[in-house]
Specification:
Blueprint: H1 6-11, E1 44-48, H2 58-72, E2 77-81, H3 88-99, E3 102-107, H4 113-122, E4 127-131, E5 143-148, H5 151-164, E6 169-174, H6 179-193, E7 200-205, H7 212-224, E8 229-233, H8 238-246, E9 250-255, E10 266-272, H9 275-286, E11 298-301, E12 310-312, H10 321-334, E13 346-347, E14 353-355, H11 363-366, E15 376-377
């Protein structure tokens, strides 16, 4: 993928405030490791992940993006650390990477934000970018966030689910009731309802990004209710995909392509392709092309603004040509000025119109949605 427009490339400037140098390939669960041609004095970039690099999900996709940086910029050491908790340990690991020469840090989990801002404040010569959150108010000028508009491909996957279901019951296993997961659940339901007005989405929360035992229990709960398509917003996805496949039901993936785990029931899904964006962030930072305060610190890229790093996963055998064509048309619509999963009217569970007819909310407004839409079964805690 490539950033599709000069405007999108320029907007990346919001992420960072200082020119830094940075890459070698590396893997690790310890604070940082490096392997490859560059020596210990070569410029470095650090990546921290909240889970393992082979989770068939969020962390695997981010790790693959880090390795794309290593491949594209062979003079730079890429330092990686797996299983970094969302607490003060994250700051410790990032500081360890900085001590090893890292001038750019990617904090890739939602809960890494506080630690990322702390490290940025302590190291004004290091660019610290965080994946998926929003920063507001007075923050270090060398910090920023980046993400794709995840709910757009999720809406498209909802169309596949709405066409495939026989029971009109879809299941959604989510981690935490943050805005990001809420908008994904809503977009999935809205996409499904656009082709199947009778469909409903049943939700179960796990209060964990990756707890296989809770995931198995959640999947079993949904399947007992007659759900025949299951999707999720979890970091590690294998447990739910395998459980759904074993039950003979359909799966919609998330974060990474897990179609190999569900050869019969896989429909499609959404997956990260961070390669171009990660590499561009490092290149532009090293070149000194970021200006403090010139752009908003929260960079987002979607179907309307460039090449969304959150892309549609491959189709499975149960998705027919008619469904593929409908999804293709919907993607074109989402890329237009009038298109959005949340184009009004949008009504919540209580029948209140939250987005009036004729209104197309922008990306910033969508990220603040804090309610379930009509058709979602289950309450926010």
């Amino acid at each position: 993928m490539k950033i599709a427009s000069r405007a999108a490339a320029a907007a990346l400037a919001a992420l960072l405030a200082t020119a830094c140098s940075a890459n070698t390939a590396g893997t690790a669960s310890a604070p940082a490791t490096a392997a490859g041609a560059p020596g210990k004095d070569s410029p470095a970039v650090g990546f921290i992940f909240v889970g393992p690099k082979d989770d068939f999900g969020y962390n695997q996709a981010a790790y693959q993006g880090s390795q794309a940086v290593a491949k594209a910029l062979p003079d730079v050491r890429v330092l990686t650390a797996e299983n970094v908790p969302e607490d003060d340990n994250a700051a410790r690991v990032m500081n360890s990477m900085i001590a090893k020469g890292a001038k750019i840090i990617f904090a890739t989990s939602y809960g890494h934000l506080d630690a990322a801002l702390k490290v940025a404040a302590e190291h004004p010569d290091v660019a610290v970018v965080q994946q998926g959150n929003l920063i507001t108010g007075a923050v270090p000028k060398n910090s920023g966030t980046y993400f794709g508009t995840v709910y757009e491909p999720v809406y498209l996957a909802g169309i596949a689910a709405g066409k495939a279901t026989k029971s009109d019951k879809l299941g959604y296993v989510y981690a935490f009731p943050i805005n990001q997961t809420i908008t994904n659940i809503d977009a999935f339901q809205l996409g499904a309802a656009s082709v199947n007005p009778d469909v409903k989405t049943y939700v179960v929360g796990t209060s964990s990004w990756c707890d296989p035992a809770k995931q198995a229990e959640a999947a079993a709960n949904l399947l007992k209710q007659g759900v025949d398509v299951v999707t999720q917003h979890q970091d590690c996805t294998a447990t739910i995909v395998k459980a759904t496949e074993a039950a003979g039901m359909y799966t919609v993936g998330y974060h990474a392509d897990a179609s190999s785990l569900a050869p019969k029931g896989w429909l499609t899904g959404s997956q990260w392709d961070w390669d171009a964006l990660f590499t561009d962030i490092v290149k532009t930072t090293r070149a000194g092309r970021f200006t403090a305060g010139k752009y908003n610190a929260n960079f987002r890229i979607g179907f309307k603004t460039g090449t969304n790093p959150f892309v549609q996963a491959p189709f499975g055998p149960a998705v027919d040509e008619t469904a593929k064509a409908e999804i293709g048309k919907a993607k074109e619509w989402l890329s237009s000025a009038a298109g959005s999963p949340f184009a009004g009217p949008v009504t919540d569970q209580d029948g209140i119109v939250r987005i009036p007819k004729g209104t197309v909310p922008d990306y910033a407004a969508i990220e603040k949605i804090d309610y379930f839409v009509e058709g979602v079964v289950g309450k926010l805690p």
